[in-house]
Amino acid sequence: MNVGILGIGVYLPIERMTAEDIAEKASLPIEVVKTKMGIIEKRVAGQDDHTVQMAIRAARNAINHANIDGKEIDVIIYFGEEHKEYPLWTAGIKIQEEIGATNAWAFDIQLRCGTAILAMKLAKSLMHSDENIRTVLLAGGYRNHDLIDYRNERTRFMFNLGAGGGALILKRDSSENLIYEADIMTDGSFSEDVIVPVGGTRQPLTAEHIMMGLYRLDVTDPQGMKTRLEQRSLDNFIKVIRNSLTKSGFHEKELAYIGMLHMKRSAHDFVLRTFHLKEENSIYLSNYGHIGQIDQILSLQLALNEKRIQDGDVLTLVSAGIGYAWGAITIQWGKQRGRRDDSL
């Protein structure tokens, strides 16, 4: 049984924040923002760009691209952020209502910026386990830039956070754009390194917290996290890509495109060099910023628009999420062809 991508949808806000804006807010040299952080500009939410609303807009785009009716959807998985219109709210059910998916059931999942990869793996597993599930919508929104204090040097590596929505329509028994195997790793030693320290049960939100600006992302041990993460992060990026390819039956020499999250340019280039790929075999999201779990879908959409992906190409989408989680999933675009030739 094959599962393929039938439709792709992306929504990007009109509002932008430039490298110059970030440099001014953070009192940083402009070259640090542009060169080290890799940001020319990023998309930020406008007045009506709420998290789930952006997911709904992306979902409608994906449905139109797939040329299906909402009533054909069997399951909806919301993979966007928990920072959304309301707390304690199942976003997938709201999406179901807005797109007219009256025959579907819906739920939410969360693995921070790694959630899109998890959603694809989970959707495929659901279709394998239940023959009544034939069409699945994955949709998510992200605007965690709301939670950034540009005066807080501890969160400098998150100054690239932006906003947007992404969606995929997955179809059972497809003959093209096939999704193969995922590989996901988590490391709990980072689980409390990046948090919003107030607003939960440990520190219920108060008026004083709001006045002090504490309802923002913070890093509890920045130097310790940096030291531990540098030892593992890039190695784990490479590991999940290789594991995903191997489990999917492809050789890494067949890899034609990597859809990566926005991160430091040096790290992005290192991943490409490791797999003997060139700049055109990926897209560096310097004009968009890091839109969380939407990055991989945005990268895929941009690559298709720019014709960087051809029929038969093997591509891998790769993510990393605070917590820490790394994930990759392999796709063969276009019509299915043979898998790995071990003589390569």
UniProtKB/TrEMBL annotation:
Q: Indicate the segments forming the Beta-ketoacyl-[acyl-carrier-protein] synthase III C-terminal domain, all copies.
A: 245-333
Q: Which domain of life is it from?
A: Bacteria
Keyword Acyltransferase recorded: yes
Q: Keywords, A to Z?
A: Acyltransferase, Transferase
The family database entries (Pfam families) matched by this protein are listed as: ACP_syn_III, ACP_syn_III_C
InterPro entries in UniProt = ACP_syn_III_C, ACP_syn_III_N, Thiolase-like
* Coiled coil location: none
Q: Which residues form the Beta-ketoacyl-[acyl-carrier-protein] synthase III N-terminal domain?
A: 107-188
Q: Which PANTHER family match?
A: 3-OXOACYL-[ACYL-CARRIER-PROTEIN] SYNTHASE 3, BETA-KETOACYL-[ACYL-CARRIER-PROTEIN] SYNTHASE III
Name of the protein: 3-oxoacyl-ACP synthase
